[in-house]
């Protein structure tokens, strides 16, 4: 039993992304996205590199030439495109107050730069939103969740080119206008900081086309910051009662020891992580980042009017993903532990998931308190969950007690943070239905309350089954976090 009171109207729900969920990558007039080009790499064949990165034009052309027999898991998703009614009915049965999803940009503008949108794509999301609203579920919609139209990579090298700002704003204004009576909560860019670790996935950049990768990435990020601020302005103008936020892949970082070198290393990692929300929530580049640019000979082209746009059109709330914490050391030779695009030193006080992600519920409370102290702005946890191997028992049950324990511990810490003064408006557990993993393209890395019968190679019936955690989360929502 939890004694922590979540506020009335707290937005409990689940989170997904179009590229991991929808499938139907050639249907309804959809164009290719960057994630449609990512193949499956078996666990035993993986290296320390991010497996989903596409680094060169030659590699991209090779992937484009591959036949449909190649294993591109994100092209098939879990067929939400055809099964959304069944899935949303299950979300409603759990009592979801909100459902985080993304609109696939190439489903609306197949090449990303058309003047007129694709009518079939617009109609599909109308049907999805209508189905959600039928059950009283608020859509929380991400505009860009690793779904950049592939044509914009080939034509412009993604966000490295300033022209993408206008193209993105045109896309954003199109969907704001279309869905203004159906969607009130929006996010601009998912995990905007991932560009620094994966230029292709975060910004659509092929690194073989540029001389200075780091400088190009930060220039691309400046373009995204400007596009985000312009989208915030458009959202407020087109949908007056809307709320629009930014989204960060949050990584709480601890010093390995009390050695000041370790403390300084952790502080600098933290600053680099929070730089993104600093710009989007405060409206300007922090001085520590300007110093970093100067030391690393990085020069960002800032056009007249950019600083004004950033300062005048900050977000209404800050959202973030939280799965794990990291440890930093002043000694660069220390061995690192991988997880969610980031890497850090192993923490001896924490257990880890099957994928080596260090499980740290208290770190979520630390993050909530730290971010609220820094910004004094509503916070929204839009991704949190445990990727694990699930087993279907002989009687058909899936007893995922490990997932319940993970989520219970994190929600308990959320409740304590709220008691301690944090303004937290919602929580959407990641992968509320099993879907394709973002970082590894696996189906076997499962997060959901709902099991989907499909393996890493696309075999299976796609039948949906409730896990033990389904009824547990239903009780959590019904009691507004009182019963854990």
From TrEMBL:
Keyword Zinc-finger: no
Keywords: Glycosidase, Hydrolase
InterPro entries reported in the protein's UniProt record: GH (IPR017853), GH_1_N_CS (IPR033132), Glyco_hydro_1 (IPR001360), Glyco_hydro_1_AS (IPR018120)
One cellular component (GO) term of this entry: cytosol
Family per similarity comment: Belongs to the glycosyl hydrolase 1 family.
Originating species: Exiguobacterium chiriqhucha RW-2
Entry's transmembrane regions: none
Protein name (record): 6-phospho-beta-glucosidase
GO molecular function: beta-glucosidase activity
